Amino acid sequence: MEHLTQSIAERIVTLVIESIDIDALIDRVDIDKIVARVDVDSLIARIDVEKIARRIDVNAIVNELDIDALVQQTELGSIIARSTTGVLAEVLDVIRSQGVGLDDFIFRWANRLVGRKATQLPLGPPLLVPLEVPA
C-alpha cells in the first residue's frame, strides 16, 4: 500500500510540475523583493577573488585588445594630465617652501652682517603689523 501511495504521489507531482507555466509564474514573482532579501556582503565574503584572478589569461586578453581604441574610449589622457598637474603642484609647493626658507636664511645673515640684533628687527611688513604691540 505504501509503495502504491508513493508511486501515485510521484506521478501527481510530475503532472503538476509539467502543467505549471514557468514564464507565467516568473511574471508574478517580485524580483525586487527577492533581491532585497539577499545578503550581498555574505555572498561577497564567500567569493575567492584570488582563485578567479588566477584563472584570467591576461596575455590572451591583451592580444585581443586594440589598445589604441581602448585608450581613445577612456579618459586616460585626462587622467594623466590631472596626475601630472598634481605632481607639478606638489613640486612647486616644495620649491616655494624652500624659497621661503632660503629667503629667511639670507635675511638673518644679512642682519648679522649689518650688525642688527633680533630685537631691532621689524615684526613684519609695515602694512601688516599693527603700530602698537599689545602687552
Layout of secondary structure:
Elements (H helix, E strand, L loop, with lengths): L1 H18 L2 H7 L2 H6 L3 H6 L3 H7 L2 H7 L2 H7 L2 H39 L21
Model description:
By secondary structure, the chain is mainly alpha-helical. The protein has one domain. It has helices at 2-19, 22-28, 31-36, 40-45, 49-55, 58-64, 67-73, 76-114. It is elongated, with a radius of gyration of 39 Å. The N and C termini lie far apart (110 Å). The model has no long low-confidence stretch (mean pLDDT 79).
What is the share of helical residues? Answer: over 70%
Strand content: under 5%
Distance between the termini: 110 Å
Structure classification: mainly alpha
For the structure shown, list the relevant keywords.
8 helices; elongated; 135 residues; mainly alpha
Write a short abstract of this structure.
By secondary structure, the protein is an all-alpha fold. The protein has one domain. Helix content is 72%, strand content 0%.
